[in-house]
Design brief:
Number of helices: 16
Low-confidence stretches: none
Mean pLDDT: 91
Radius of gyration: 22 Å
Largest sheet: 6 strands, parallel
Shape: globular
Amino acid sequence: MRISEDQLASFSFTGFHFRSLELLREQFSNHHIDFERIIRKIQEFQIAIPSAALGNGSKKKSRTGGEPRDLSEKLEDIGLLQQLTCRTNSVSVYIPQDMPEDFAEVKELANELKLDFDTMNSTSSKDQKEYAKLGSLGNLNKAIRDEAIAHNEEVISIGKKLGSKGLTVWMADGSNYPGQSDFRSTLGWTEESLREIYEFMPSDWRLMLEYKPFEPNCYHTVVPDWGTSSMLAKRLGERAKVLVDLGHHLPKTNIEQIVATLMYQNLLAGFHFNDSKYGDDEHNPGSIKPYQLFLIFCELISGDKDGAQAWDSISWMIDASYNTQDPLVDLIQALETITIAYTKALLVDREKLKECQQSREESRAQEILQRAYLTDVRPLVCEARVRAGGVVEPLEAYRVLMIRNKLVQDRGRKSHPTIF
């Protein structure tokens, strides 16, 4: 399904948006903020969509109908998102769930939709691989480790055909009881396996190593935190870096400090955007802790400006779990929330903030952050989207055009998508 140019144009302007933008300009007229520069920055900021996010056909999820049945239909759905939001120009593919049947056909469709292939994702969790129930890359059985390595190498080979340039690795390896596994041995086997995968990658690829404190194992996880992930990345080589999943942290973790520390070492690979209330909940980004998301972007912008790590070296992907809502609606909301947090961080007066830090004026420093955070930047985000060819209000357009109903008509109420 595609949205026609005429349909997009009918949602591309409102008098209310124009007045809101001018009021924001007036509000910041004395703050020497270059709105045109900010709008350009917003337009450049693109967030990848995971292929796993488009279908909600899991037994644990409610079906909306019209779910994509294969990778091609998932690309079409991402194309719809891009038409409406102009915020996502790439897809991150999960293997084996979204194994392409015809590589030429998939690439041709992606080119037609103006989509690229972001990092590839291997799957070595116990829910997907029978062999992984007792570990994959860190399994004590070398034959099983070799099988897990072969899976990752297969994913790399598939990614090469699609035009990807990176591999995301997360393992469900760990244990549920004290004494079940030897900590040092499983860590050592994991490093050996990762080294084989790293050396198999093309020289222009990156390995992004994710960490997770728990789940599915409740006693120990082989790569439980950013410190272990960064240690492994350093031992592998400069093309290995740490992937930060915002939902995969223990409660009250200072994630913005983790981001700053990784940038300090030029070790930040990118993000999986989601949110968490208790532990590993994977709520919609910014739905629980929006201020934290804003502070994370403050560190990202500051780290880039100070030369710690270049903005362009970081990858961005949504990785939330849509259990009850229409996944396309949730993705539109997620793209908007992430962009709003980024835009607010762009408004921070960093020169004044540094002056306050140096003069130990804590209250003024907090006010500078609060002024930016409390600003309604939606007119800026909206203007950037409209200039790029999107619509003023993507959710309104999605509902008025009855896109989900049309997808149901095309694909059926029970479209039997891949189960995750």
